[in-house]
Specification:
This protein has helices at about 35-40, 50-55, 105-110, 120-125, 130-145, 160-165, 175-190, 200-210, 215-225, 230-250, 250-255, 260-270, 285-295, 340-345, 400-410, 435, 445-515, 520-585, 590-600, 610, 635-640, 695-700; strands at about 5-10, 30-35, 55-60, 65-70, 75-85, 355-360, 370-375, 380-385, 390, 425-430, 625-630, 645-650, 660-665, 670-675, 680, 720. The chain is α+β, with helices and mostly antiparallel strands. Helix 8 (about 200-210) runs antiparallel to helix 9 and helix 12 (about 260-270) crosses helix 13 (about 285-295). It is globular and about 110 Å long. It starts with a strand and ends in an 8-residue tail after the last strand.
Length: about 725
């Protein structure tokens, strides 16, 4: 087949084919079109440079080798090229799709209209860690539990069918875990492009074939996924999913979802094979995900071989640590007995590294226990073995009791046992802690301690904010550099093609000029060729320097992220302590003015409520002014429509056994759940301590809800059914 003139176009947007004769596009794809094909459609010279006016164009995608129609509105003109003659066929007229982005429609609007999912790069951006839709589904699944026997193995749920036409996620509480799992799988399936791009398939295949050792293979796979060819959003999404699947794998005894099973379910969704490929077997994507999940960190009770512990140093015994009295295991504050792993996870949620507790082992074998330790933002489970009256984490067992073992590691690092656990047992989760949180015995002493905790919280918050700003800035720079590297790649490709074209053409001219004895022209041609090659080398060097900068900055960005994550538990702990002291002071009748002084808040004007609190004239005392019984959210919003900020009502919640508070904030109605627990009513722990709804309403008449939610900077000021005061 001879060659003919043609043109190259570059895809600017992704396109999923709607008809059999179409071809798929991804941004950056190079499309080749025959000049004859355009002329056959009635277009003249020069029209090729405005593909948006041509309409549907017949061509070949060089990446996928697909031949078919693509929309001219989705591509840009690159330049002329010599190609083999392709055939063309008559087509019926069809409307063009609108140019993506032309209407300014982004993710929320597209989803409201029931449009297909957008690319990951358009769904979110750092510092977000994953697409909001995905985060919402995963949180809902993990909240309901990942130990179900049929997890991720059901299909055809109502939620999944509904999401095929509308990806807006409302209240997920009514749906069971299987419907949510099917929706998550559907989300990954409906993404226009897979989470793992085709560009790194070759590297992944080479690693899987050449590196048999699982841990080394996993490390190399993670390095390959940090390639500039993988967009940042894809990397973050994959990391988020791996964390979730790791939690699922930890429950393999219940759900039977070992790494291999998860690989079979999720591998083809994350790493889609581009059609029939002789090099890539169907097991390729399965093995890829299985290898990523085969990490010892995901199997906390199967820790690597450990060093035996050093002999205990002479130090105070367990007895002396307990105010001089011998402490039995049953009396130890950190021993919780027979509680489930889920309860342990809840108790250690958002706690700093070094926090720990001990429970009975799930094996139920007499004398065996499990230590759960917070490390690196995750819970590490360590089995405590028992034989012939001795205890320990590994052979030889040298401790006379569990109390002695725990006491030892409260002073010595667990790195003695496992090099990865370089921390001591610092903060016990005490089963007596609710009575011991506030240890001071006077209002003044509690206030001074509140001042200390508040200052520590502010200092940590300031440090976190600085890191967050730096992380956001570097994330944006990384994305710009990745875009620049892509531009370098395209530029290099164009220059190399020009170089090849020049070499082909130059040979004929050089031979002719040499026959004619025109050495000057020969030298001019050779000089131009050298200049072009020199320019390509310069561009290559610039690209390599940029890639090195990108790698260094990506490493620094990961370090910032680690530091931010290490601060989060401390922030949560300090806020929790501060809030518990605030609750104690409020219960003891401390005035808000004095509390503000301890918190460093200026009392610019005397609080009006402080003069009204002692009077019985407040409408809040009349339950009928704010309690409206069983109405839904929409009815509540209708009642509060047009009311001033702080207007509120209390109603029955759709959550069984709970109530809901609906309040006007910045002209909009917000809703929050009121929990009814054994300790009382409240919006969240440790605030569930009000004896009645009335007590709760009176408290939040003068205390802002902002302490529970940053967007609720409002008090329950105006009962919806009360009469406005006479003017």
């Amino acid at each position: 087949m001879g060659s003919t003139d043609g043109f190259q176009y570059r895809a600017l947007y992704p396109y999923r084919k709607e008809r059999e004769e179409d071809i798929d596009l991804l941004p950056g794809d190079i499309l080749v079109v025959s000049k004859g094909a355009l002329q056959a459609l009635g277009f003249k010279d020069g029209d090729e440079q405005t593909p948006n006016q041509i309409g549907w164009i017949l061509g070949v995608n060089e990446r996928t080798k697909q031949k078919g129609d693509f929309p001219g509105t989705y591509v840009e003109y690159v330049g002329p090229v010599k190609i083999s003659v392709p055939s063309h066929r008559p087509r019926v007229q069809r409307p063009l799709p609108a140019t993506p982005g032309a209407s300014g429609c982004r993710l929320p609007e597209a989803l409201e209209q029931g449009s297909p999912l957008l690319e990951l790069q358009e769904q979110f951006s750092p510092p977000e860690l994953a697409p909001p839709l995905l985060v919402k589904l995963v949180e809902a699944i993990e909240k309901k539990g990942v130990d179900s026997e049929m997890l991720y193995r059901t299909s055809g749920s109502e939620l999944r069918q509904a999401l095929r036409t509308d990806w807006t996620l409302g209240d997920l509480e009514p749906f069971d875990v299987h419907s949510l799992c099917e929706a998550l799988r559907g989300y990954l399936q409906d993404l226009p492009s897979p989470v793992v791009p085709v560009a790194v398939h070759g590297d992944i295949l080479r690693i899987l074939q050449e590196i048999p050792q699982p841990e080394n293979c996993r490390k190399q796979l993670l390095l390959a996924l940090e390639s500039p060819a993988v967009p940042l959003q894809n990397t973050l999404t994959l990391q988020f999913l791996l964390r979730h699947l790791g939690k699922v794998s930890q429950q393999a005894e219940s759900n039977s979802l070992h790494p291999r099973a998860l690989g079979e379910i999720f591998g083809p969704l994350l790493l889609r094979l581009p059609g029939a490929s002789p090099e890539l077997s169907p097991d390729f994507s399965v093995l890829f995900l299985e290898m990523l999940l085969q990490t010892k960190e995901l199997e906390p009770e199967q820790l690597p071989p450990a060093l035996p512990p050093k002999p205990p140093k002479p130090k105070p015994s367990a007895a002396s640590l307990a105010n001089g009295n011998s402490v039995s295991l049953q009396d130890a504050e950190w021993y919780w007995g027979d509680i489930s792993r889920e309860e342990v996870n809840e108790k250690l949620r958002d706690t700093p590294d070094g926090t720990f507790l001990v429970r009975d082992a799930s094996s139920k074998i007499q004398g065996e226990y499990t230590l759960t330790l917070r490390k690196g933002g995750n819970n590490k489970l360590i089995k405590i073995f028992h034989r012939e009256g001795k205890y320990g984490f590994s052979e030889p067992l040298t401790f006379g009791s569990v109390v002695e073992l725990i006491t030892h590691y409260r002073h010595e690092s667990l790195a003695q046992y496992n090099a990865k656990l370089d921390t001591r047992l610092l903060y016990p989760i005490s089963k007596y802690q609710q009575d011991q949180v506030v240890k001071e015995d006077s209002v003044e002493a509690v206030g001074e301690q509140l001042k200390v905790y508040h200052q520590q919280y502010q200092d940590k918050s300031w440090e976190y904010d600085l890191l967050y700003e730096e992380y956001t800035r570097t994330s944006q720079e990384l994305q710009m550099k990745r875009t620049a590297i892509e531009a370098f790649n395209e530029t290099i490709k164009i220059f190399e093609e020009q170089c090849q074209t020049q070499e082909k053409c130059s040979k004929e001219y050089i031979e002719r000029f040499r026959r004619e004895g025109n050495e000057k022209e020969v030298q001019r041609i050779l000089m131009n060729s050298e200049k072009l090659k020199s320019r390509i080398t310069e561009i290559h060097d610039s690209k390599m320097k940029l890639e090195q900068d990108l790698k260094k900055q990506a490493s620094e960005n990961r370090e910032i992220d680690k530091r931010m994550n290490s601060l989060k538990p401390d922030l949560m702990q300090l806020r929790k302590l501060r809030d518990q002291y605030l609750v104690w002071l409020t219960q003891k009748g401390a005035r808000q003015k004095k509390i503000n002084e301890w918190l460093g808040i200026k009392n610019e004007t005397e609080d009006q409520y402080s003069m009204m609190d002692d009077e019985e004239e407040l409408p809040h005392h009349e339950e009928r002014t704010w309690y409206v019984g069983k109405i839904n959210r929409l009815q509540a919003e209708e009642m509060l429509c047009g009311k001033r900020d702080g207007t509120f009502l209390i109603r029955e919640s759709s959550q069984k056994g709970c109530y809901a508070c609906s309040v006007v904030v910045d002209g909009d109605t917000k809703h929050c759940v009121i929990y009814k627990t054994a300790t009382g009513y409240g919006f969240a722990e440790p605030y569930n301590l009000y004896a009645s709804l009335k007590d709760l309403v009176l408290h939040y008449k003068h205390t802002s809800l902002v302490q529970h939610n940053d967007s609720l900077n409002v008090t329950l000021a105006h009962p919806v059914l009360s009469q406005p005061p006479a003017r």
